Amino acid sequence: MSRRTGRPSYQLSTPDSARRRGRLAVMVAVGLVIALLGGAVGYAAGRPDEVESTVADIRRAEAQRDSAQIVELTATARRLREEISPVLGALRADPPADRRPGPEQARQWRETLRRAVEVFADPPSGATATNVARGGLRGAVEQTSLAVESYLLAVTGPRGQRTALTELAKRQADQAAAAWSVAATQLDQVNVDGGQGHQHVYLEGDHHDGAEEGSGG
User: Fold this and answer.
1) Which residues contact 67 (CB under 8 A, 6 or more apart)?
2) How far apart are alpha carbons 165 and 155 in whole angstroms?
């Protein structure tokens, strides 16, 4: 019978080599875990979380809303300019007393301005710059309305007060025109900032930047 033999000695593991292989296996396992965790953390960090995504959606919605408000406000300003320009022009003029508009014309102006003021009765909330432009236009329209009321008193009240009230109406009309000019400048700027380009809604004779309409958007 042949004697049973074991593996050759060179195939036998020594205690030191076994320990080295064990440590190597542990290191490999730890490295894999670290790599997996690092990839997961990197993915999580690079992906926008739910709060950031919600904020971005809100900002996009606000930008779209403000853009629509700017377009609407500009169209409203153009319409109102056509309505109040003749009124301001007449009030700021200095014709002879016998050629000044009478009570009936003043009452028509008052009705026109009443409707113009109502346009701003329930303003929407928009971006600050747009709100400033809208408030400036509203102030100019309200000042024009006051000028008309003063003029109506001048042409329907005692003759002794007519000159003083007519001069008061003229000064109020001058202030209304100045307020409109400032508001038109602000409206022009928000149009440029909003990508609509220059939109000049100035009164006739007002000075502005001279930029081409629609440019700069």
Assistant:
1) 194, 195, 196
2) 9
